[in-house]
Specification:
The complex is a heterodimer of chains A (176) and B (700).
Chain A lengths: L4 E11 L5 H13 L2 H7 L1 E6 L6 E8 L2 E10 L2 E11 L6 H23 L8 E2 L3 E7 L6 H12 L3 E4 L5 E5 L4
Helix pairs in contact in A: 3-4
Chain B lengths: L4 H15 L5 H9 L3 E3 L6 E5 L5 E2 L1 H14 L3 E4 L5 E6 L4 H10 L16 E2 L14 H11 L14 E4 L14 E8 L2 E8 L11 E8 L3 H15 L10 H23 L5 H13 L17 H10 E3 L8 E6 L5 E3 H14 L3 E4 L5 E7 L3 H10 L14 E2 L13 H13 L3 H4 L6 E4 L13 E10 L2 E10 L4 H4 L4 E7 L3 H15 L6 H16 L1 H4 L36 H21 L3 H21 L11 H12 L5 H13 L6 H30 L1
Parallel strand pairs in B: 6-7, 7-8, 16-17, 17-18
Antiparallel strand pairs in B: 1-2, 2-5, 3-14, 4-5, 4-13, 8-9, 9-10, 11-12, 12-15, 14-15, 18-19, 19-20
Classes of the chains: A alpha+beta (176), B alpha+beta (700).
Chain lengths: 176, 700
């Protein structure tokens, strides 16, 4: 079994977040984690409350195959909030498999982010059109340039490299 | 050897064998615990504890921890009261890869949990503190290295904790709460330690007692080994709640315990590592400054930096290269994000001589910061949201994971800590800024949050009223970390979890109203007495009915009703005898030998098949009280005890071991090796049968 990418992290910018946003997101996750249908369907494990941290994933829903949360970062003195969706990679027998999985993960991630912001406590927030993609190497990692190429082919969007601590990160521009 | 890649391969194989139903749940649980992999409260996910002796971590290691938190966990690193790091929500299948990446930067998680010697802790300022007798870092590290994987520490009934303190009066080393606590002391210029034994917190807290007022430094490693042997031999193995060493010390009495230790010490074969490891560890721990020690400009000490300087920074002991300081980075609830950890690594390189230690109060200390670099350090920390002031104030709250992730949690210790943290920034800001008040919170009576050592301690509990259960906290008053944690707080009553922040404010007011001149908080509380304090807190102890006030039935920071749910904790570990581990190792080696045979790898096949039989023989010998650290001859002793003695082991099968030992590991004939693997398999099967028979006999 080949694994080219072990995990994908998607970050969708959010507009309108304020000091109470993390708590409101946790309220939504608390409700989701006690909804048996949702727990079964999404494999929800629990929520993680990191609202005491000034940055990072301050409100997080942990599920078996993905994490969904609101994450804050500080860049050039400005605070930015983003919806974070993380998904574990499965087996990718070929680069074509990988490209397909990335496209599907992007679609699933966008859907999950929209579903979160559709919840009443968070419905005042707006999702931006951009997305940042961070890819974590698998057992047989590919070079960053190849990943960028595959991501571009899979999404039809321009791919720009981004410095983001670890893994390989890109920002996807608007579709041409 | 600190890291051992081969044991990570063995972990991966054992995990696969467990998945295939070939390793029992009980044995696998204790096995993974000994790699720091701990089942969370939430089913199917793990907490990975990462053992960092003395809380010492390099910038490179911290960056790796950050990458692992991002890659395998939830992007947050949690610092524990034992100077470890914990990652949460890790998938068991990811653990081998995670352990390999740690090994690459010189970190092992071996014996981070389970019935083993846990992380050896020490003052985070060891080696640079002006108040210490001398640098204790070398000895602490030597103990950690010496006892790691040591055969004499593999058969305990419970965990075993060791701490080394640089002085008698400080609040960092906490020697008195440990199984072995060492306090540095010079005697006529010679280095030595006061040795305390049998301390511990938990539901039955006990102060360690002084075994020796002074023992030369070079005698500490053999002493620790002798104590470990006594604990392994005489410690309780069946009743989990009585299995810590404190109960053994209590049962034997200090003099009786000392007599056992001294008898064991006399039996110990001389080990050259006692002195070699100590010398090597001292050399490894010796630190030199990364930059000249420029002086701090007093004019710079205003505003936020001024507060940071007063409350978080302390001057190091004088050094010929100039003025150096330590700076404590205050982490809310002991948490920092992966991004912050990377920033901290960079800041430590740029401003702190790249010397980082995690502290027992769940923070981080940067060492060797030149005085003149402190303002820039503060600015860089502020940029990364790490410049909170108040390391010596009530804002520095300690809390264990509690119901967030721990199976044993009863109430949300982190929920209360986060609520207090928010209140101390607003509303209760003056209380939070007090330097004469400390708060520690545990989610249950086991005291991982060290609530016994706080001026105000909280321990999670619950209270039923009708059909509903409310989370509550038992309040402990009067504990103190000073003098190595020599004073434990006493319980005064249970208060509603939701009202615990008001309890803190009330107790502060009471203290300010009632204190006598120069009287510290614990002394005032002791003088006022339990009855008076209980009357003061009565209004917070009342739990109204659910219909009256449903919010009392919700824990702090939780928007849903409380449900008491306490699982079987893994903190105590399953009691798996050393023999069972050795038999499991024997089984695994038979499996590995078979794989090697299939791959035509003769040397590996020969080695595994021989070692499988040796491990099985050692397993049986351990039931006769033989200790591997005595360096006995496995073949001779096995023959004496199990073949010639009572003939418990079939002589023909026993011969397979002797034949393989004679052939050694240089066999290249694959046909012979095929037979040898079969013989090893038969030998291990027979050993399992004999072990089961012995166990049956013991039970009778």
């Amino acid at each position: 079994m080949r694994t080219l990418v072990s995990r994908i992290d998607l970050r969708f910018p959010v507009h309108g977040a304020d000091a109470s946003t993390a708590d409101r997101a946790l309220e939504v996750f608390a409700r989701w984690r006690t909804d048996p249908e949702r727990v079964e369907r999404d494999g929800i494990v629990d929520l993680a409350d990191y609202a005491h941290l000034p940055v990072g994933p301050r409100a997080l829903l942990v599920a078996r195959s993905f994490h969904l949360g609101l994450e804050w970062s500080r860049e050039a003195g400005h605070t930015r909030a983003r919806v974070l969706v993380r998904e574990r990679g499965g087996a990718q027998e070929s680069e074509a498999d990988l490209a397909r999985w990335m496209a599907e993960a992007l679609a699933r991630g966008r859907h999950r982010a929209e579903a979160l912001l559709a919840e009443p406590p968070l419905s005042d927030l707006r999702l931006g059109p951009e997305v940042e993609v961070q890819l974590w190497p698998g057992a047989e990692p590919l070079p960053a340039s190849r990943l960028a190429g595959l991501l571009g082919e899979a999404t039809g969007r321009p791919v720009h490299p981004v410095a983001n601590g670890a893994g390989v990160a890109f920002r996807l521009g608007a579709r041409a | 050897m600190l890291v051992d890649e081969a044991e990570i391969d063995a972990f991966e194989t054992t995990l696969a064998r467990h998945r295939a139903g070939q390793v029992s749940e009980k044995v696998f649980t204790e096995y993974r615990l000994r790699f720091g992999t701990y089942g969370q409260r939430q089913e199917g996910v793990q907490m990975q504890r990462i053992k960092l002796p003395l809380g010492r971590v390099t910038p490179e290691q911290l960056e790796t921890l950050a990458d692992l938190a991002d890659h395998y966990a939830d992007s947050v690193l949690h610092v524990t009261t034992r100077q470890d790091v914990q990652l949460h929500f890790v998938a068991l299948d990811d653990v081998p890869a995670l352990l390999r990446r740690l090994a690459r930067v010189g970190i092992t998680t071996r014996e981070a949990c389970g019935n083993a010697v846990r992380n050896v802790t020490a003052c985070a300022r060891a080696g640079v503190c002006p108040g210490e007798a001398f640098d204790t870092g070398g000895l602490a590290y030597a103990i950690a290295r010496y006892l790691l994987r040591h055969p004499d520490t593999q058969d305990f009934g419970r965990k075993f904790k060791i701490s080394v303190s640089g002085c008698a009066d400080g609040a960092c080393g906490l020697a008195r709460i440990h199984d072995i606590g060492l306090v540095a002391k010079l005697r006529e210029g010679a280095r030595g330690y006061a040795v305390y034994v049998g301390g511990g917190l938990g539901a039955v807290p006990r102060q360690a007692e002084c075994l020796y007022p002074w023992l030369p430094e070079e005698q500490i490693l053999p002493l620790a080994q002798a104590v470990a042997r006594v604990f392994a031999r005489l410690g309780e193995k069946r009743i989990r709640s009585r299995a810590r060493m404190k109960f053994l010390v209590q049962r034997l009495g200090l003099d009786g315990f000392r007599a056992e230790v001294e008898a064991e010490r006399r039996r110990l074969p001389e080990d050259p590592r006692w002195s070699a490891l100590l010398a090597a560890a001292k050399a490894e721990m010796a630190e030199t400054p990364g930059a000249p020690g420029t002086p701090l400009d007093p004019a710079a000490a205003g505003g936020d930096f001024g507060r940071f300087l007063v409350h978080n920074c302390r001057r190091q002991r004088p050094h010929p290269d100039g003025e150096y300081w330590t700076a404590k980075v205050l982490l809310p609830l002991g948490d920092l994000t992966a991004g912050q950890a990377r920033a901290l690594a960079r800041i430590a390189r740029e401003h702190g001589g790249a010397r980082i230690r995690l502290t027992a109060d769940q923070n981080v200390v940067l060492r060797w910061v030149p005085g003149g670099a402190l303002p820039a350090l503060h600015a860089a920390l502020a940029e990364a949201d790490l410049a909170r002031w108040g390391a010596d104030t009530a804002r520095n709250v300690s809390a264990c994971p509690g119901t967030d992730t721990c199976k044993l949690g009863i109430a949300s210790s982190r929920g209360l800590a986060a609520t207090l943290d928010a209140a101390f920034q607003d509303g209760l800001a003056a209380t939070g800024a007090r330097t004469d008040l400390s708060i520690k919170i545990s989610g249950c009576p086991n005291s991982c949050g060290q609530h016994h050592l706080a001026h105000i301690g909280f321990s999670g509990s619950s209270k039923r009223r009708g059909d509903h259960v409310a989370p509550v906290f038992q309040v402990f008053l009067g504990g103190d970390t000073r003098h190595n944690g020599a004073r434990y707080g006493l319980p005064v009553g249970k208060v509603a979890a939701r009202r615990a922040p008001e309890v803190v404010a009330h107790l502060e007011r009471l203290y300010l109203r009632e204190r006598r001149e120069g009287e510290a908080f614990p002394d005032t509380m002791e003088r006022l007495g339990k009855k008076r304090i209980a009357a003061e807190l009565a209004e917070y102890m009342r739990i109204p009915s659910y219909e009256e006030a449903p919010e009392y039935y919700r824990d702090n920071r939780q928007s849903f009703d409380y449900v008491r749910s306490v699982g079987v904790g893994e903190c105590a570990g399953e009691v798996v005898a050393a023999a069972e581990f050795m038999l499991e190792e024997a089984e695994r080696r038979v499996f590995e030998a078979g794989v090697a045979l299939e791959e035509g790898d003769a040397p590996s096949c020969a080695a595994h098949s021989l070692e499988a039989m040796r491990a099985a023989a050692d397993a049986l010998l351990s039931t006769r009280g033989l200790l591997k650290s005595d360096g006995y001859d496995t073949l001779a002793e096995f023959r004496r005890h199990f073949v010639e003695g009572d003939g418990a082991f079939h002589a023909g099968t026993a011969h397979y071991l002797e034949k393989a030992a004679k052939e050694g590991e240089q066999v290249t004939d694959l046909a012979r090796l095929r037979v040898r693997v079969e013989e090893a398999s038969l030998f291990v099967d027979e050993a399992n049968v004999v072990y089961a028979r012995l166990l049956g006999a013991q039970v009778k």
